Amino acid sequence: MSIRIGILGYGNLSRGIENAIRQNPDEELVAVFTRRDPSALKVQTEGVTVDHVDHVKDYIGKIDVLMICGGSATDLPKQTPEYAKYFNVIDSFDTHAKVPEHFANVDRAAKEGGKLAMISCGWDPGMFSLQRIIAESVLPEGKHYTFWGKGVSQGHSDAARRVNGVKDARSYTLPVESAMDMVRHGEQPVFTAREMHKREVFVVLEEGADAAAVEHAIKTMPDYYADYDVTVHFISEEEMKRDHAELPHGGFVMRSGVTGENGKHHEFIEYKLNLDSNPEFTGSVLAAYARAVDRMAQKGETGCITVFDVAPKYLSPKSEEEQRHTLL
Amino acid sequence: MSIRIGILGYGNLSRGIENAIRQNPDEELVAVFTRRDPSALKVQTEGVTVDHVDHVKDYIGKIDVLMICGGSATDLPKQTPEYAKYFNVIDSFDTHAKVPEHFANVDRAAKEGGKLAMISCGWDPGMFSLQRIIAESVLPEGKHYTFWGKGVSQGHSDAARRVNGVKDARSYTLPVESAMDMVRHGEQPVFTAREMHKREVFVVLEEGADAAAVEHAIKTMPDYYADYDVTVHFISEEEMKRDHAELPHGGFVMRSGVTGENGKHHEFIEYKLNLDSNPEFTGSVLAAYARAVDRMAQKGETGCITVFDVAPKYLSPKSEEEQRHTLL
User: Fold this and answer.
1) How far apart, in whole angstroms, are the C-alpha atoms of residue A284 and residue A21?
2) Per-residue model confidence (pLDDT) at position B30
3) What residues are paired with A150 via a beta bridge?
4) Nearest to A209 by CA among A163, A244, A260
5) Is residue A185 a contact partner of residue A158, using CB atoms and an 8 Å limit?
6) Around Cβ B206, how many Cβ atoms within 10 Å?
């Protein structure tokens, strides 16, 4: 029988999950829940029910895993504990400082309902976290580095859009190549933010706006830009539509460590993602972990988990024999 | 309390494990077992008992995990099932075609003894297997590639050494860069062996040997060299000692996949190892998995497992809270 999946919310990530489910023959999208008027929402997959989020409890017993696709700032802290009482759930909560609180709340709710709830799934946190824990465990005498990019930072794009005179903006995060090369060559430097990443912003100006003032306002914006080397490009609305409509992203997790007598040998691990579509890849990760959550819940596991708790065998649709035969 | 480890056999891999244990404060090397005369064997770590392999059963209750460091061809198929009756064990069995048989034998023995036994641990199989199963699960519409090198192939070095007129030889496996670039750019080609890897052999000739004949014999050797582009370099004994004494290795696991409507987005995952010391890195992987085996055995798990069965949390010495705080 297929794993029956529900999606709560319908933005970029939800569409990414919807696409990913179509690539997994053992998964089936059953329903999408929205806070808007369900009749106004058209989803891509035929035969999928669209219902109001207020009716989600009517689907108890009809959905194996509910994917909760709200924002980390205000949606998920409320939604995930709420729905973990009734469903096995997965979210992609990524406010790092608030993970302990979110974990505790979700754990309590899921245990109360006898459900399994995974938080912070995706690629970072998610795939990158996996690489960090495995690499650190294997090379305890070492240091790990996470570089992001090249990719669109939606938070930084939004921040640039709030500048006076900016009609539209798209902000890219780029890793500093020379910093990555230092790590690859066995150095274990302590970097500042500026030494690891730079930013590139493409801006469409409002008519009559002062380009120099806009550039200055962006480059000196605290938290978002002031700590980085920033290049600002002014482009037309047409160029924005033509060249910056996609949401690529990616990055690198590296661990540089030593082994042997007096640490004389350098060992280096590098994991790279190069993604044309951040939300579609994230959705693909969530679809694989939905399988794991369903299987682990069937084994009786309850409470809150993260990617650290999932044995890789649960991710694959293959039998364990087939996994060993084709992938070991 | 420390995890008490025993090592069976004392070659390059065993010394790699011994070094790795010193980097893991929660692990302790208790004993090394040898088939030779124990009094003739000097290990690096102070206070470690060296005993004959015939006495290994005297250590039941004194060792938490026994690392079995024999060869895959003849040692491990006998040793791992034998000792899995009495100890939690780990081996690095790497004869891929015989994994099902080995798994079944070890599983039977370990269940009989109520022990947990991990086979095929290291970096390939091992770390690379993990990357393959995770990447395939996340990107089901795609193809994965494993490239090895640059690194010393001991099997190919041995084969070259058996050629008439060769006094010493060291054979390196190298990935073909242009093939890797094709995969990175989103193509999903079907490669021949020659298209993925090339070989470089450094040879010290016996006095009076015919260099051209040696080169021909190596390049045409079936199974080992005939299917690859091979470069043979003739060097002096001094150069061999100076430039080829180490055992570096590494490689790449790549997965190229597509997501979205009609697979319009390319998503690419690449995992790279660049290792100064193959046996020390392998030993480091085994030391991390020894922790996992000990913990999982304490939870009552028995039978045969591989890296696919291990949740990443079991690899790290950190508490689960600390893992989420520092690595998620």
Assistant:
1) 8
2) 97
3) none
4) A163
5) no
6) 12
Which residues of chain B have a CB within 8 Å of the CB of A24? 140
Phi and psi (nearest 5°) for A65? -140, 130
Q: In chain A, what residues touch B13 (CB-CB under 8 Å)?
A: none
Q: What are the tokens at A274? A: 């190069």
Q: Strand, coil or helix: what is A49?
A: strand
Distance of alpha carbon B35 from alpha carbon B311, whole angstroms: 35
- Asked if A133 and B327 come within 8 Å (Cβ–Cβ), the reply is yes
Cβ distance A274 to B310 less than 8 Å, yes or no, reads: no
Of the candidates A20, A154, A132, A106, the one whose C-alpha atom is nearest the C-alpha of residue A302 is A106
Contact (CB<8Å) A325/B100: yes
Q: What is the pTM of this model?
A: 0.97
> SS3 of B134, please?
helix
Which residues does chain A have within 8 Å of residue B27's beta carbon, measured at their own beta carbons?
Answer: none
In single-letter form, the type of residue at position B173 comes to T
Interchain pair B133, A327: CB under 8 A? yes
Q: How far is A219 from chain B (nearest CA, A)?
A: 30
Amino acid at A158: D
Type of residue numbered A146: T
Decide the pairing of beta strands B27-34 and A151-152: unpaired
Q: Cβ contact (<8 Å) for A137 and B315?
A: yes
Q: Which residues of A touch B134 (CB under 8 A)?
A: 127, 130, 288, 312, 315
Helix locations, chain A, DSSP H: 12-22, 75-83, 99-113, 127-138, 154-161, 177-184, 193-196, 211-219, 237-243, 278-298, 320-327
Q: In the predicted model, is pLDDT for residue B11 greater than 90?
A: yes
Evaluate whether ipTM surpasses 0.85. Answer: yes
For β-strands B151-152 and B303-305, DSSP reports them as unpaired
Q: Which of B44, B96, B133 has its CB closest to that of A323? A: B133
Is there a contact between A138 and B266 if contact means CB atoms under 8 Å apart? no
Q: What's the rounded Cα separation, in Å, for the pair B244 and A74?
A: 59
Query: Which chain A residue lies closest to B95 (C-alpha atoms)?
Result: A328
Q: Do A137 and B316 touch (CB under 8 A)?
A: yes
Residues in B touching A102 (Cβ below 8 Å): none
Closest CB from A133, A277, A306 relative to B315: A133
Q: Which two tokens stand for residue B48?
A: 């470690």
Distance from CA of A186 to the nearest CA of B (A): 10
A144 → chain B, closest CA residue: B327
pLDDT (tens digit per residue) in A122-169: 999 999 999 999 999 999 999 999 999 999 999 999 999 999 999 999
B158 neighbors B265 (Cβ within 8 angstroms): no
Answer yes or no: do A127 and B133 touch at CB < 8 A.
Answer: no
Interval A78-116: pLDDT, tens: 999 999 999 999 999 999 999 999 999 999 999 999 999
Q: Which amino acid is at A147?
A: F
B228-242: b (≥16 Cβ within 10 Å) or e: bebebeebeeeebee
**3-state secondary structure labels for all residues of A154-208:** HHHHHHHHCCCCEEEEEEEEEECHHHHHHHHCCCCCCCCHHHHEEEEEEEEECCC
Q: Quick one: pLDDT at residue B79?
A: 98
Which token pair is B66?
A: 């026994």
Contacts of B125 in chain A (CB under 8 A): 328
Across the interface, do B327 and A315 touch by the CB < 8 Å criterion? Answer: no
Average pLDDT over residues B245-267: 97
**Does residue A159 come out as left (phi exceeding 0), alpha (psi in the -120 to 50 range) or beta?**
alpha
